[in-house]
Amino acid sequence: MIITTTERIPGKRIVNVFGLVRGNTIRARHAGKDILAALKNLVGGEIAEYTKLMAESREQAIDRMTDEAKRMGANAIVGLRFTTSEIMGAAAELLAYGTAVLVENEKK
Question: Which helix (H) or strand (E) holds 36?
Fold first, then answer.
């Protein structure tokens, strides 16, 4: 599955557009990690626990979006975007969305 943030894929031609596909995940923070993050906030620097949580969330959302595109018969997703929203104080949603398409190699 080709996934791109652009609307076109160099060397490929879109032959069918299936439409919007999306994948999301909602994750809650862990109280123990929040304590470590608060301490890290005092001295500054990256909060590695949250970086890892967000990376895992992005991958899960992309996997779910890709599964939906495959069920439609797509072999690519163009225009990939991410958005987040707070669900409650300790939980957030990460949403990946794009357009499922069928592409083939351009003829020369």
Answer: helix 31-43
**What is the domain-level CATH number for residue 40?**
3.30.110.70
The first and second tokens of residue 39, run together, are 């301490």
Give the number of domains in the chain. 1
The domain of 33 spans: 2-105
pLDDT in tens, 7-33: 999 999 999 999 999 999 988 765 555
pTM of the model: 0.82
Mind giving me the DSSP string for 42-107?
HH-S--HHHHHHHHHHHHHHHHHHHHHHHHHT-SEEEEEEEEEEEEETTEEEEEEEEEEEEEEEPP
Q: What are phi and psi of 52, to 5 degrees?
A: -65, -45
